[in-house]
Amino acid sequence: MTDETLPNGLRVPKIGFGCWKIGGGGTADPSQDEWSLAALRSALELGYTHFDTAESYAGGHSEELVGQAVRRADIQRENLFITSKVSPSHLDSQSLLRSCEASLRRLQMDYLDLYLIHWPAPNMRLGETFRTLNKLVTDGKIRHLGVSNFDISQLQLAQSVSATPILTNQVPYSLGDRSYVKNGMLAYCQENDILLTAYSPVQQGGLTIDTALQAIADAHNATVQQIALAWLVQQHRVITIPMSGNPAHQADNLAAGEIVLSEAEMAVLG
């Protein structure tokens, strides 16, 4: 269960590595570089191939560090799946072009596998935005397009104006946060072969542990966090991007993709 395979043959890792803490928080914090690079190095050594970053993560410094880590690891670019995101304030054509070029420059890469609109913006002009995004696809700067934090109507509009299929909607989804199930997004993505990329899959360490979840974890000789991730990626068209700087936890997260929950266990978890 390491990849999600789409009808067009594209294979996307079920479990990727979220980079929102890499390089700092809302702004760059070079004092965290050693920790960040060590986290990326161990993830690459463990076999992670999907790395999810954004121009807003640490003011772009996250992208710089991802690029540094990849170069130091001497891994072939085609063996990686790199995602970045454009901020909602940069959705006009010129700003979008500048943002994409800046992300590629910071990453020191020639193309992105996936480029997302990070958040919907008030009064978005998605026609203009997607004309520009599609040009970036045609120019070879981006392989695939997606969105993040969109509702169904916004996603449908994006689909209607994009010549390139929408690969994913990245939203918060976990055992404890099912808002995008309740609003119909999960079902819509599954019906339309759109990946739902779950961020905050263990609620940033705040996952509620009940007796049923603990019992399932014990039965699989796994942690509850692994079961929470396995529950996600066992669902059709769901992938996830947990983050940890701890190599042992990184290994556990990746191994969660190999845990197979029974129908009864999936039903208990809901």
Please, could you describe this protein's structure?
Helix 1 runs parallel beside helix 10 and helix 2 packs parallel to helix 3. The protein has one domain: Alpha-Beta Barrel (TIM Barrel), CATH 3.20.20. The radius of gyration is 18 Å and the shape is globular. Helices cover 41% and strands 17% of the residues. Helix 3 links the parallel strand 5 and strand 6. It has eleven helices and ten strands. The strands form two sheets. The chain has an eight-stranded parallel β-sheet with strand order 3-4-5-6-7-8-9-10. Strands 1-2 form a two-stranded antiparallel ribbon. The mean pLDDT is 96. It has 270 residues and is an alpha/beta fold.
Q: What gross morphology would you assign?
A: globular
Q: Give the termini distance in whole angstroms.
A: 20 Å
Which strand order does the major sheet show? 3-4-5-6-7-8-9-10
Count of domain modules: 1
Q: What integer is the average pLDDT?
A: 96
Tell me the CATH superfamily: NADP-dependent oxidoreductase domain
Helicity level: 40-55%
Q: Give the beta-strand count.
A: 10
CATH architecture: Alpha-Beta Barrel
Poorly predicted runs: none
Which percent range describes the beta-strand content? 15-25%
Which class do the helix and strand fractions yield?
alpha/beta
Computed over alpha carbons, the radius of gyration is 18 Å
CATH domain topology: TIM Barrel
CATH class placement:
Alpha Beta
User: H/E series, N to C?
Assistant: EEEHEHEHEHEHEHHEHHEHH
Query: Count of DSSP helices?
Result: 11
The description of the largest β-sheet is:
8 strands, parallel
